[in-house]
Amino acid sequence: MKAVELENIFKSYPIKKTSVQVVDDVSFSVDDGELFGLIGPDGAGKTSIFRILTTLLLADKGNAKVLGYDVVKDWKSIRNIIGYMPGRFSLYQDLTVEENLEFFATIFNTTIRENYKLVEDIYKQLEPFKTRRAGKLSGGMKQKLALSCALIHKPKVLFLDEPTTGVDPVSRKEFWEMLKRLKSQGITILVSTPYMDEAKLCDRIALIQNGKILKIDTPQNIMDSFDKNLFAVRSENMFKLLNDLRTFNNTESCFAFGEFHHLTLKDNDINISDLEKYIAQSGHLNATIKIIKPEIEDCFMQLMK
Amino acid sequence: MRTLKFLLRKEFLQIFRNKLILRMIFALPVIQLILLPYAATYEMKNITLSVVDHDHSEYSRKLINKFTSSGYFILTDYSATYNQALDQVENDKADLIVEIPKGFEPDLSRQNETIIFLAANAISGQTAGLAVAYANTIIKDFNNDVRTEWIPQSQLNTIPVIEITNSNWFNPLMNYKDFIVPGVLALLVTLVGFILSSLNIVKEKEIGTIEQINVSPIKKYQFILSKLIPFWILGLVVMTIGFVISFIVYGIYPEGSFWVIYLFAGIYLIALLGFGLLTSIYADTQQQAMFIAYFFMLVFILLGGLFSPTENMPDWARYLTYINPVSYLIEVMRMLVLKGSSFWDLRFHFLVIIGFTIVFNGLAIFNYKKTV
To answer: Distances in Å between the alpha carbon of A110 and those of A102, A141, B13, B212?
Structure first.
């Protein structure tokens, strides 16, 4: 049995007189014990998919199941076996760390002690602050507390909606290490993120945009399926370079990626020296060109078109 | 049951941690009960009086004395002509003009008849009405004095006179405070039961915690009960504080049974909590909830008979008071505190408030959806 299954899910919201299709024929499934990532920009429909799966939102059309339970018919059973961490910090800010955890344990008819082992790693770091009010925690701490609260009733499937948005890079890294440990304990994790670098940490990912799934595969397969040569180019005048590369008649796409511009060409036979010539002609000094391995983001950009 | 216990514990933790609200809950009855009855009074004192005396006689002086010694009027102006006195009214320096005509004394003694002219500033209708009514009484009184002076003692019995005496039942001294304090108590209970409860639920929505509650196996009734019970208790606590204060400050002790008061207030609070819940369903932010609550509170109070008796209202407004739960509580409070009504006397009020409870809570539960 699959942990999560979606079949042709549609969801639209009315905006004024028209409606916006936020989830457009989405189907995918997540295996038991898998760490599955929904990767996409803001407004891609990630949160709506999460809310449909956590029984908070009804889909317009289609079927969805969590551990074999239908999200419409068996919503009561689903609520007992899932953990959900919304994108926005939504714990009681006026209760302390300990009180929050205790509260969420009791509403699921369990106690902190019963499942302490599961949250131990995470909660240990929070323990020095356990009498502090949740509203006064730092961003990373809040996320750890939210994760602890979502885990305290030992859910079989964990839904994490953009858990690392607004969290510093160190805490983000720690957070993903925690997810790996949870996965090793057999918990199925469905996580969404707008950060492409986090995609590689998932077992499988679904790239999603405008409510549509672009591709579902392992991160490695997605990167391997990139069929073009990818060039990283830099020079002293990066802005002019971007414009020049985009007007180059052989350019398929060119995007700014940190210190380099990533460039794909229509014709895969063109080699570096041809490119160098063009760049030199455009009057760029100290230009560097190299062929690089594509990242998830490059694949996403290519699929987006 | 266990879940409900924990939910309630969490609510009380949050309430007791919200220091501002907590202080307000205790400061509100104290301040309202001490300030409002003194400030809002129907008795008109300090009506400013302008006298135009064309007669300058013994009698006119006596009449003016009677005005000033009544305690209701302050003689602020002595004008020579009516037009001058009118200027005083225009400048807001006088509320009432008494014009005593030339030949007041001779006319009165010779022709047994004379005329006094009263003119009131009717910008505030209530002030004008009361000022004229007081003035009438004073003049009538003056008239009686004059008659007793003239008619020899022996003849007094032969003239038939109807003398009117009255007594004010349930509030013998017409003490305005006795009238307003039970109303303010009703207001306090409403404030806690309605506004605080609706804000509390909306807060969960605003912060997003309701999402977490909704994905948990908590049942609808458990969540609603955990929200209503704390404010039900708080409402009764505030009412108790109110009774203690009104006893200490005004010596007001309910004539009726405390059991009936608490029973009625208890049912009333359930109705109002249901209304608060209904409000919170339609509001997404505390700001919206506050505004809705403010709107209803204002209507409830104005049409509740707290300051102006509902009997004085035009028909359409009086029909509106029938669907105003606050007017029932104010009435019941007065009946219990001043009159000492029994449960049986209030059976109609009990039935109506139970009706409100069923309607408000029914609507609230019907509209409350667990899937947001």
So the answer is: 9, 23, 20, 16
Same domain, B148 and B117: yes
pLDDT value of position B366: 82
* Adjacency order of strands within the sheet including A188-193: A82-85, A157-161, A188-193, A35-39, A204-209, A212-217
CA-CA distance, A11 to A211, in Å (whole number)? 9
Judge if B15 and B99 occupy the same domain. no
The beta strands (E) that lie in chain B are given as 47-53, 73-79, 96-100, 117-120
Whether residue B7 lies within 8 A of chain A, CB to CB, comes out as yes
User: Do A250 and A200 fall within a single domain?
Assistant: no
CB contact under 8 A, B211 and A80: no
* pTM of the full structure: 0.77
Q: Which parts of A129-210 are beta strand (E)?
A: 157-161, 188-193, 204-209
* CA–CA distance, A148 with A126 (Å, rounded to integer): 10
Do both A86 and A162 map to the same domain? yes
* Residue A50: closest C-alpha in chain B: B215
Reply yes or no on whether the pLDDT at B105 is more than 90. Answer: no
Tens-place pLDDT, residues B267-318 = 999 999 999 988 988 888 999 999 999 999 988 888 888 777 777 778 888 8
CA distance B269 to chain A (A): 26
Residue range B139-162, pLDDT digits in tens: 888 888 887 777 765 555 556 667
A278 contacts chain B (CB < 8 A)? no
User: Each residue of B254-271: pLDDT tens digit?
Assistant: 888 899 999 999 999 999
Q: Is A280 on the interface with B (CB under 8 A)?
A: no
Within 13 Å, how many C-alpha atoms sit on residue B207's CB side? Answer: 16
CB A93 within 8 A of CB A134: yes
DSSP lists the bridge partners of residue A256 as A261
What kind and span of H or E run contains B63? helix B58-69
Report chain B residues whose CB lies below 8 A from the CB of A86.
208, 211-212
B13 close contact with A: CB closer than 8 A: yes
Interface confidence, given as ipTM, is: 0.76
A238 — alpha (psi -120 to 50), left (phi > 0) or beta? alpha
Whether A174 and A138 map to the same domain: the answer is yes
| Domains identified in chain A, total number | 2
State whether A231 and A289 are in the same domain.
yes
Task: Indicate if the alpha-carbon torsion angle A95, A97, A98, A100 is positive or negative.
Answer: positive
Which residue segment(s) compose the domain that A290 sits in?
226-304
Strands B47-53, B96-100: parallel, antiparallel or unpaired by DSSP?
parallel
Instruction: State residue B89's pLDDT score.
Output: 86
Q: What is the per-residue pLDDT across B225-253, written as a single tens digit (0 to 9) for each?
A: 898 999 999 999 999 999 999 899 888 88
**How distant, in Å, are the alpha carbons of A166, B10, B289 from that of B194?**
38, 20, 11
Domain of B186 in residue numbering reads as: 7-40+173-367
What pLDDT score does B371 carry?
Answer: 42
Residue B28 and residue B52 share a domain? no
Reading the block at residue B230, the tokens are: 């704390």
When the pLDDT of each residue in chain A is averaged and rounded to a whole number, the result is: 88
CA distance, residue A60 to nearest chain B CA (Å): 15
Residues 6+ apart with CB under 8 A from B68: B49, B74, B75
* Mean pLDDT (whole number) for B323-329: 90
